[in-house]
Amino acid sequence: MNKTFEEAINFRHACKSFDPNKKISKEDMSFILNAGIKSPTSFGLELTKFIVIENQELKDKIKKESMNQEQVSECSHLLLVLVRINDSKIESGTPKKRFERLGLSSDILDIFLNMYTEFTKTHLISLKDIYNWTSKQAYLAVGNIMTAAAVKGIDSCPLEGFEKEKIEKLLNLDKTELQLALVLPLGYRTKSPRKSVRLSFDEMVDFI
Ligand SMILES: Cc1cc2nc3c(=O)[nH]c(=O)nc-3n(C[C@H](O)[C@H](O)[C@H](O)COP(=O)(O)O)c2cc1C
To answer: Which of 30, 80, 154, 181 could form a disulfide with 51 if both were Cys (CB 3.0 to 4.6 A apart)?
Structure first.
């Protein structure tokens, strides 16, 4: 049975030890990935891409480039969250295609395109700007993905501890097209998590 939102939030933790013999079903993986697909993106451009790795050999290779963190090879499914670098550029034609899906009149379509063109000129100057901007959005999807997984009683562990360039090379990625933002092992825990520690509500939140 699905967990409630509150149960899922309390269930989730950064899982360090997965049961390598317990596999996530196809249905549950679809549920989890759809939470990522349905996540908000700036201008509705959807510049995130998901690669799901089940192949053990590849998981082992990625583990080596992820500070040997066991979660990467022991998980059921290893989700790589990538960002679409070239598609963010006006000249790729992708922004226009994405806006056209909205069925706008040509006047409004031009307004959208001009607005985005201005945005790229001020905010997306370097490749690093593009990587940072698209990664922020990818992380929103990751938040939803982790909660969706928890709804199904599935564990996750967001990872930034990896050698980006080495994993991109392993996957033969064209860096002008796709770059790796985050690695997310998914699966089932082998043991209870340690007690969750958090700042108090008052330390975290100001109402003004
Ligand atoms: C952006 C990001 C990167 C992280 N990288 C790693 C990592 O490389 N390895 C790891 O074991 N945990 C990693 N974590 C998990 C955090 O250490 C963990 O979320 C935090 O200590 C709070 O614990 P909890 O999620 O279990 O409540 C990362 C978390 C985030 C949000």
So the answer is: 80
